[in-house]
Structure to design on (660 residues):
């Protein structure tokens, strides 16, 4: 048994008695491996006695689950209405320029800091009241 | 000296942690409280009721020496932004430590639950119904009626589900409440459980709110003994906006794709795992402990106007000078909110548009600022209150591109179940692009199929800009009346309101180009 199979087995065993266990399991697998790939889907499906199509359908529905791990650091930048009203579109180019190929600048819709945008998130750290240079700095430090 | 600094996610995003560490490093006791909701002043430092903000690390010494007059705002409770409010749901905002059971109890916590347990189901249902409380998530359905339906439904197992999937841009009240006063939500859910006979509750929080998730998980653990036998669990969303729709949320909780269910059956009859389920927004459930306090229901009912009773935590966001949380009774006009309370735009430029109710809410023109905060008044104006978020735009905003974004957002977030939303939103983006295309003058040439000889009845002249606008209007009608849920059904609100009030933002580029070419 591969270590991956073993680990996924543990995750399934930890959660499978909960009501609606699939989402918590997918979150745990995504956190452990940085993605939920086809192999993982098959293992989870087996563990929960679901079809692989059922699991794949759920994985592919949600934006948070990916089929390949993101190796670059990720900077999430909110580009929803309230941050647009506070000028995020004008500073996004600076962020992507600072990111180059090294960092992934990902668009998200709303971090809940709408009175003080533009805002960004790196891991669980949030940033608000950003301007071009501040955002570029965050990208460079990511 | 006791220094009070918020540990709300917004304050932390603006450096509150570093600031707290600096004060602690100088030997002072630092208490981390909830946020007062004056976001333009965050991070706000409070010493003996006096506020200083927005404070930076450079201000630490000056604040301690009493030399920080530039950022001093005086007594926080007397600040006009706070003094003008009627805070019920947010009565503890800024005043208590979020996870302190001691603080919660000292400010009247658990008294609603205690009273509820004494009086029993029928009486709780009667008081919640009497209060006139309506669902704060956007639909505005009377909470008492929903609870009665669940209470009378047959079933050994029932559930209370809290919708904390606050995805609307311009809203943050759920986040503030969960981070700032988590026990209030827990108490509200326990009362709901008592009322309908449910012993299990789920709080579905979006994954974009790591602080709220952590705080609630901790709060549930600390208060488990107090709400037992009622049990609570946090479930984390996975980045799907549509899961804020109640039936989609239920599917997601069940571990399925977050696709919308057709109604009926109502979730109150067949909800989570097919069992009778109360699905309420955070703010709805958090309003309940106040209503269940002695005389709370009639006090609540006396606030507001017509059929919109009580208070609404309104969120002032976007390009606004004084952004933050403003809880007040229904009836306040939009002009008061934006200009008097919010202080106009932060950029200092004139207000061009205000979007009320999140990404699916209408854009309101400053000419219509007399509109009062009231479910029915907004509905009559082809607009919606939604979750109470107000996003202000100054005159640099391009409303054509905001309309396009509304369609683009709907296309990206559609669950795919119904055609008007799934296909309509994609077509909506295409039509708006064509209307705004300067090269073609806002229309399009006849396509290959239209030019085929066999297509006798097809028009051979393509479409003019005017016809494209007609098509967009038709599409919006189809989405509005044909979609299963509010995502497809309400996306036409921002699109059509933008088109109605600022048509030049759709046609202007094409027209300007044509003029330049002449």
């Amino acid at each position: 048994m591969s270590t991956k199979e073993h680990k996924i087995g543990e995750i399934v065993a930890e959660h499978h008695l909960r009501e609606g266990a699939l989402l918590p399991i997918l979150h745990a697998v995504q956190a452990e491996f940085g993605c939920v790939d086809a192999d993982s889907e098959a293992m989870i499906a087996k563990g929960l006695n679901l079809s692989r199509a059922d699991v794949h359908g759920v994985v592919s529905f949600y934006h948070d689950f990916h089929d390949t791990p993101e190796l670059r650091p990720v900077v999430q930048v909110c580009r929803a209405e309230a941050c647009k009203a506070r000028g995020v579109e004008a500073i996004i180019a600076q962020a992507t320029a600072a990111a180059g190929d090294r960092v992934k600048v990902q668009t998200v819709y709303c971090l809940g800091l709408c009175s003080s945008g533009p805002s960004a998130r790196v891991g669980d750290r949030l940033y608000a009241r950003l301007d071009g240079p501040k955002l570029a700095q965050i990208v460079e430090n990511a | 000296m006791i220094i009070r600094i918020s540990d709300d996610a917004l304050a932390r995003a603006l450096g509150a942690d570093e600031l707290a560490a600096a004060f602690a490093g100088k030997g002072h006791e630092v208490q981390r409280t909830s946020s007062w909701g004056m976001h333009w002043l965050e991070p706000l430092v409070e010493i003996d009721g006096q506020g200083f903000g927005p404070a930076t690390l450079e201000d630490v010494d000056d604040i301690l020496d009493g030399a920080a007059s530039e950022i001093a705002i005086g007594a926080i409770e007397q600040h006009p932004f706070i003094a003008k409010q009627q805070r019920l749901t947010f009565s503890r905002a800024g005043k208590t430590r979020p996870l302190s059971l001691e603080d919660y109890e000292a400010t009247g916590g658990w008294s609603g639950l205690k009273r509820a347990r004494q009086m029993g189901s029928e009486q709780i249902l009667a008081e919640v119904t009497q209060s006139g409380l309506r669902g704060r998530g956007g639909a505005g359905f009377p909470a008492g009626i929903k609870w009665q339906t669940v209470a009378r439904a047959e079933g050994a197992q029932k559930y209370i589900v809290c919708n904390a999937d606050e995805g609307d841009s311009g809203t943050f009240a759920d986040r503030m409440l969960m981070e700032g006063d988590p026990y209030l939500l827990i108490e509200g859910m326990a009362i709901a459980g008592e009322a309908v006979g449910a012993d299990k509750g789920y709080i579905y929080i979006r994954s974009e709110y790591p602080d709220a998730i952590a705080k609630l998980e901790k709060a549930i653990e600390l208060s488990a003994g107090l709400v037992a036998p009622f049990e609570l669990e946090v479930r984390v969303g996975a980045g799907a906006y549509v899961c804020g729709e109640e039936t989609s949320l239920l599917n997601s909780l069940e571990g399925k794709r977050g696709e919308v269910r057709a109604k009926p059956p109502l979730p109150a009859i067949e909800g989570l795992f097919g069992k009778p389920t109360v699905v309420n927004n955070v703010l709805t459930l958090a309003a309940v402990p106040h209503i269940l306090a002695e005389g709370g229901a009639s006090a609540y009912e006396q606030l507001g106007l017509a059929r919109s009773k009580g208070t609404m935590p309104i969120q002032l966001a976007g390009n606004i000078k004084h952004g933050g949380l403003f809880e007040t009774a229904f009836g306040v006009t939009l002009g008061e909110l934006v200009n008097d309370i919010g202080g106009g735009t932060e950029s200092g430029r004139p207000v061009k548009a205000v979007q009320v109710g999140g990404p699916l809410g209408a854009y309101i023109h400053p000419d219509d600022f007399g509109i009062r905060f009231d479910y029915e008044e907004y509905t009559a104006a082809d607009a919606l209150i939604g979750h109470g978020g107000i996003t202000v735009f100054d005159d640099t905003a391009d409303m054509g591109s905001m309309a396009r974004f509304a369609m683009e957002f709907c296309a990206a977030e559609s669950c795919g179940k119904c055609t008007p939303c799934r296909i309509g939103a994609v077509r909506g983006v295409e039509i708006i692009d064509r209307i705004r295309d300067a090269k073609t003058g806002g229309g399009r040439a006849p396509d290959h199929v239209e030019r085929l000889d066999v297509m006798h009845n097809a028009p051979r002249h393509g479409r003019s800009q005017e016809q494209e606008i007609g098509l967009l209007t038709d599409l919006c009608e189809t989405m509005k009346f044909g979609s299963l849920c509010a995502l497809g059904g309400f996306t036409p609100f921002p699109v059509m309101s933008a088109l109605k009030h600022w048509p030049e933002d759709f046609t202007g580029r094409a027209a300007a180009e044509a003029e330049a070419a002449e």
